[in-house]
Design brief:
Length: about 270
């Protein structure tokens, strides 16, 4: 087990610990560039750092952005055709994923989470994703999803609860946004690999992932605008939907949407916490 994830909150100086995290993440990026899937290790490194207080996932912090840049830096050193990070929307989604894990780490040990073993929860998430055929999420995306779910759960999630939370939505209820999120997860599994299949990262796959992330961001923005319009209509604030969203409101929606992820629950959860 990675040393970063076996430690509980400590009194290490944040600056020193953060430097160690930055270096470790850069090395993980290098390994990813050489063809080894390291996203799960990245997630646990971030979780451990957040538990020690050397990664701040609160609003306004740049830790997530800097750590994702460190990972890309290592990736580009060993994979000259790497395109991860070429899209601002894709960058924002990846930073949001890191912050989702880090928020759980920051919460560990606080009064509301004294009975929650964050490390065990995410190990269970990884194991369920790898061993449950009906779960389509990659192990890393499962960590992100369960981090968000656990933050809203009053007690430590069981394996059965984790398995249920990771089940895909019913096909008949899926929209274009749902389909693209599912496709993004399948591509992540292809890049990261599974117990049965070797990881297959490539420049072409990264370009395709970035394009899908961009489209997801566009759809999430239009979805939020539509939801706001419906709320105004129901409240009797407006009668003409074409005049429903002001420029100020649209800019606020764009800011909120920019940090969303491509996971199944991203459209609702991230906006609610913006």
């Amino acid at each position: 087990m990675n040393a970063h994830v076996t430690t509980t909150a400590q009194s290490n100086a944040p600056s020193a610990s953060y430097g160690v995290l930055y270096d470790e993440v850069t090395e993980l990026g290098k390994l990813e560039g050489r063809g080894k899937s390291t996203r799960v290790e990245l997630g646990f490194a971030v979780l451990g750092a957040a538990m020690r207080g050397s990664y701040d996932a609160s609003k306004g912090s740049n830790d997530g952005k800097e750590i994702w840049e460190a990972y890309q830096k290592g990736l580009r050193e060993t994979h000259v055709h790497a395109t991860a990070g070429d899209s601002k929307a894709s960058d924002a989604a990846q930073v949001s994923k890191l912050n989702a894990i880090a928020k759980l780490g920051n919460a560990a040990g606080t009064p509301a989470f004294l009975g929650v073993d964050a490390v065990q929860v995410l190990h269970d998430a990884v194991d369920v994703a790898k061993t449950t055929p009906s779960v389509k999420a990659s192990a890393y995306d499962a960590m992100v999803t369960i981090s968000r779910k656990q933050m809203k759960h009053p007690t430590q999630m069981t394996r059965d609860e984790i398995r249920l939370a990771l089940q895909p939505a019913d096909k008949e209820d899926k929209t274009e946004l749902d389909e693209l999120r599912a496709l993004s997860k399948r591509m992540a599994r292809l890049r990261e690999g599974t117990d049965e299949k070797q990881a297959m990262p490539s420049a072409q796959l990264q370009q395709a992932e970035a394009a899908i992330e961009n489209r997801i961001q566009e759809l999430e923005l239009s979805t939020k605008e539509a939801e706001l319009i419906q709320l105004k209509v129901k409240a009797g604030v407006i009668e003409d939907p074409s005049l429903a969203v002001s420029e100020d409101e649209r800019r606020e929606i764009e800011r909120a949407t920019r940090g969303m992820t491509s996971t199944v629950e991203a459209g609702s959860e991230d906006y609610a916490h913006a």
